[in-house]
Write a structure and sequence with these properties.
Largest sheet: 3 strands, antiparallel
Strand content: 5-15%
Strand order of the largest sheet: 1-2-3
Distance between the termini: 23 Å
Number of domains: 1
Oligomer: single chain
Radius of gyration: 17 Å
Length: 200
């Protein structure tokens, strides 16, 4: 059974955020959370704020404040702040943040850096760079090992702790990058969405 931690390493991605009106949260409580609770709780942490329509930038600022309060340079925190700013049209700020989420090459076994490069190319509206990053991501070799599910026909089946099976295309985020290519002329929030991605 693959660990939740390994799954997070493989899929290190982001979640789309909707657009609201009241962006007030208990900042002190959220800023006091540990990184796992703040960043990876799908129904808590910064995501609660980001899921409130109109609060993407407030959630981005919360991520920035969390990093600064904890002196935390985790790439995933930069990535999620960058995504939220990109959703709100702050492409230049997003690019700077996303660049800080690159991993050392020796630690990147699932094509994270190629995914980052593809997203930055999209935000820069550089189609050639996006296509190059897409091809590089598609060429990432699947990992092997007794604790790693095999990739069959481009899909990795992951057994979850609750007994459910999750199917993940290999490499992770390839469907997102294909969506960015398909909807290249759309805003990032639209191109990132499921409507632009190939059917599963």
């Amino acid at each position: 059974m693959i660990s939740r931690y390994l799954l997070l390493l493989l899929v290190w991605g982001g979640s789309a955020a909707a657009q609201s009106s009241s962006c007030e949260v208990d900042r002190a409580r959220l800023l006091a959370l540990d990184e796992q609770q703040f960043d990876q709780d799908q129904s808590g942490g910064w995501r609660t704020l980001a899921d409130t329509p109109g609060c993407n930038l407030a959630a981005a600022d919360l991520l920035r404040d969390y990093r600064q309060a904890h002196h935390n340079e985790a790439g995933i925190l930069y990535w999620h702040e960058g995504q939220l700013r990109a959703f709100s049209g702050q492409s230049e700020q997003a690019i700077v943040l996303m660049n800080k989420s690159h991993k050392p090459a020796a630690q990147d076994r699932a094509g994270w850096n190629q995914y980052v490069d593809a997203t930055i190319a999209f935000l820069r509206k550089d189609r050639a760079a996006l296509d190059k990053a897409n091809a590089a991501l598609a060429a990432v070799v699947p990992p092997v090992g007794k604790d790693v599910p095999p990739v069959v026909n481009g899909v990795m089946e992951v057994s979850m702790a609750d007994g459910q099976t999750m199917k993940i295309r290999w490499p992770p985020n390839i469907d997102v990058v294909e969506g960015l290519a398909k909807c290249f002329d759309q805003p990032y929030e639209t191109a990132y969405g499921s409507a632009c991605r190939p059917p599963q």
